[in-house]
Structure formats: structure tokens, C-alpha cells
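Weekly modeling sync, notes
Attendees: S.R. (lead), two postdocs, one rotation student

Agenda item 3: backlog of single-chain predictions. S.R. asked that every request posted to the team notebook include the full sequence so nobody has to chase files. The rotation student volunteered to paste the first one in as an example of the format we agreed on. Action items at the bottom.

Example entry:
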Amino acid sequence: MGGPRGGLPGPFVPLLHNPMLADRVQSLGAYLRFECSLPEDLKELAIIVTARHWTAQFEWYAHRRFALEAGISNESVAAIAEDRRPDDLSPVRAAVYDFCIELHEEGRVSAPTFQRALDHLDRRRLMELIGLCGYYTLIAMVLNVAEVPIPDGEPPLGRRPRTAVAPGRPLPRRGAPQA
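Predicted structure, as returned to the notebook:
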């Protein structure tokens, strides 16, 4: 299992219990991290939103720094860590944030949220955004189940309250008449 990461970070040690799966996961991750067409700031925003959603300690630890390096502000990163919507997001970052939050909370996105994201990203990039959320959900689950630790001295994410959105809330379908 080789790739652009230069080692076996976080999730890949537990994934080696199934080398074929580990290789496939690594390939998808390499595409999403290093080859997809989304700008770095939007990729890292989606990744830290996913890490926060799953309270994936190692994923948060690893990507918080990348998000800051990609230009996501300290204030935005802190707000996401506290499970709050950042106040300082540009329109495209706000559309990506809202899309990712709704996708994670509802398992789908409403027509207005989809359209706002599409106003900033083409359909190819939207599929990459969905792929990032799905891939990093898989990584978060592996990390959480394997209890991959963060380095000593690093602050952990707090537990996330699960009451922000009522599960199962019906969302309007794209192209469906609005009530």
C-alpha cells in the first residue's frame, strides 16, 4: 500500500487488518485529497466538518492544521470545534459548510441547499464534495472504532450534542413542488 502520504498515518494501521480494503481506501483518499478539483480550503472545510460531526479525534487533530494552512480562519475552526456555524465564512465556504452539515445531519440535502452549493460549484465538484464527506465518514468510523489516539498534549474535541436537527425531518426534493 503506497501513496502520497509518505507513511501509514492514523486510519491505515487498523485498516491493514484487511489489506485489500486498505489499498482501495487509500486510493480513493489519495484522489480526494491530492487530485480532485475542489480548492484546498473547501476540501479541508468539508473534512473538519466531517471530523466534528463524528467527533473523530485523530481526524480533527490531523486536518485542523491543514484547514488553517488552507486559509480557514482560527475563528471558523474554533466555531466548528464548538459545533457552531462560523460567522466569517465567504459565500462559497458558507454554501459548502451548509451542504456538508445538512448532508451529515439528514443524509441528503434540500433543494435550496443544493442550489446554493451548485451556484458556486459545478456538478463534478459537488460529487467530489459528497465523496469527501463519505470518505472521511468512513475514516472517522475506522478511527473511532480503533480508538486511534491523538498525540499527548493535543486538546480533544468535546462530545457533540445530538439535538441540533430533528432526525427524519422531510426535505423538499429537487424538482418537486414546494408545499
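Discussion: group reviewed the output briefly. Confidence is low (pLDDT under 50) at residues 1-7, 163-167.
Action items: rotation student to repeat for the remaining queue; S.R. to check formatting next week.
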